[in-house]
Amino acid sequence: MGLEIFGLKGRVAWITGGSKGLGLQMANALASVGADIVINSRHAAEAEAAAHAIARQHGVRTLGLAADVTNETAINALVERATATLGGIDILINNAGINVRQPTTEMALVDWQRVLDINLTGPFVCSKAVIPAMRARGWGRIIHMSSILGQVGLAGRPPYTASKGGLILLTKTQALELATTGVTVNAICPGPFATEMNRPLLDDPEKYAAFVAKIPMGRWGELPEIDGAAIFLASPAASFITGTTLLVDGGWTAQ
Ligand code: NAD
Questions:
Q1: pLDDT tens across 141-186, in order?
Q2: Closest ligand 1 atom to the C-alpha of 68?
Q3: Is 3 exposed, middle or buried (0-12, 13-18, 19+ CB in 10 A)?
Q4: What domain range includes position 76?
Q5: How many CB atoms lie within 10 A of CB 141?
Q6: Is 95 in the pocket of ligand 1 (CB under 6 A)?
Q7: For residue 22, how far is its CA from the centre of ligand 1 (angstroms)?
Q8: In whole angstroms, what is the distance from residue 30 CA to residue 235 CA?
Q9: Active site residues
Q10: Contact 41/66 with Cβ under 8 angstroms?
Q11: Residue 92 is part of a domain; what is its CATH number?
Q12: pTM > 0.90: yes or no
């Protein structure tokens, strides 16, 4: 068997929040092995620009649409539009996410709720929207972007850790719900990567160094280092893998 077990030609992949950061990186990675790409962002212009750039670079079909992952009506409309335009979503990467960094006693309830809504309810809404058609086709891949902070705690991150830990059990539960259908559900748990989300750490040399000190490999992840995990879990190569989490963390959680 050759490299075609990692190929995604003829598949349509939807990456939520895919106009920048790890989402854009993974969208390009899946396009590089042949997948057509759907991207949503809260801003139409950003989603469209990213989709056009991916189409130009990889010669695949793309669609960039505005939709907030917490808005079920908008998400259902996106799935309908993608199905009409590209023929149905085969792969969903629930990537959209935010972080608000405050200890419990200083965390406003509205911020706690916003992180849970986007990081945990968003993936529920988006997977609910695609599962019926995946099940009907007998093939599908759902990948939730959790985090090392879904596996271990970190002071000052109450809703982020709770949402990412919740995603790991959502992964297992959906994997069991879909185990006999040809649809797999897995999670990726990245360690620190230099994206906008981590701007407060990147801009603070002390905080940046404190994170490096926790990583056995002694460095942050480089964006392309997420590609292999995304391609692998989306591909035919991962057909017997469901309900699991793949750590991409330079060893953070090994200690
Ligand atoms: P980022 O801030 O660069 O990108 C997040 C994307 O999600 C943005 O495009 C943003 O517009 C989008 N988004 C946010 N709220 C949304 C909403 N309500 N509806 C639609 N889109 C929305 O962050 P990133 O670092 O690329 O993170 C991507 C995912 O990876 C997140 O789920 C994050 O928690 C996870 N993660 C990141 C790291 C890291 O170190 N960067 C580590 C572990 C996990």
A1: 999 999 999 999 999 999 999 999 999 999 999 999 999 999 999 9
A2: 19
A3: exposed
A4: 2-249
A5: 27
A6: yes
A7: 7
A8: 9
A9: 160
A10: yes
A11: 3.40.50.720
A12: yes
Any ligand 1 atom below 6 A from CB of 151: no
Residue 124 CA to residue 137 CA, distance in Å, equals: 20
From the CB of 174, is ligand 1 less than 6 Å away? no
Total count of domains within the chain: 1
Are 217 and 251 in contact by the 8 Å Cβ rule? The answer is yes
For the chain, the residue count is 255
User: To test ligand 1's pocket by mutation, which of 46, 65, 72, 98 has the most ligand atoms within 8 angstroms of CB?
Assistant: 98
Which residue in this structure is represented by tokens 């990412």? Answer: 164
| Dist CA 255 CA 253 (whole Å) | 5
CB 75, CB 126: distance < 8 Å: yes
Nearest protein Cα to ligand 1, atom 33: 97
Residue 233 falls inside a structural domain: yes
State which ligand 1 atom lies nearest to the alpha carbon of 69.
19
